[in-house]
User: Fold this.
Amino acid sequence: MVCPSCGTLINTDEKSCPHCGAWQPNLFGIGPVLNRIFGGRIDVLTLIPTTCIGLFVLSLLLDLGAALNVSGGLFGMLSPGRRPLIILGMTYGGAPWWTVLTATYLHGGLLHILFNVMWVRQLGPDVGHLFGPARYFIIYTVSGAVGFILSNQFSGYPTVGASGAIFGLLAALIVYGRNSKSNMGATMTRQIWQWAILMFVFGFLMSGVNNWAHFGGFAGGWVAAQFLVSDSGRREGRITILFALACLGLTLLGFILSIWQYITLIF
Assistant:
């Protein structure tokens, strides 16, 4: 197996890595499994937009009447009804805790998901390349959750979307550029700051935009990236992978709980 700390080939029964001294590099037998999940077998960069698209299609199918209603014009085209979004985990003031995780993958209309998926596909590969796939998933999850926590605290309005997490990805790239202390890093930082400021401005000019989630997502991404940036040039160790798996597990649990809660209310 490969030691998750130093990347050297070692025996699977080693109690500590003979090269770097990492304790239980095999993690009692589940280390190789963790490395496969966030080590190339599963493309996390594709997983997030694919999940968003899949859940958007599901939300449309759960209420075709609302989805095919064209009374809202271009911005209302292919918009899920309120009931499917609640079933799948929309968040709002007083909503269950898990909705701050699930709502990041839900979207309220065709243009909403197109723009958000476009930005995830634009920023995700850069964050994943610079920080690593597990760290990228942590930043995405923390950013989206913090954004919705702030939104629920100060607004409470029902909301969904990946834009808070997207602002977190912008913040992560800024943090990386500031810490790289290179001309390329400085150039990237200036460019990302311009994007972030423009997106913040557009948020105030357009109606129905959750600016609290944007601010919270940016702050959450900044803090998460500050914790992770010092290790961004190293292999992702067991703690990082375990934390990313915990984020994934809590999100999956959130969807299960949302659906189960709705079923229990019906029956």
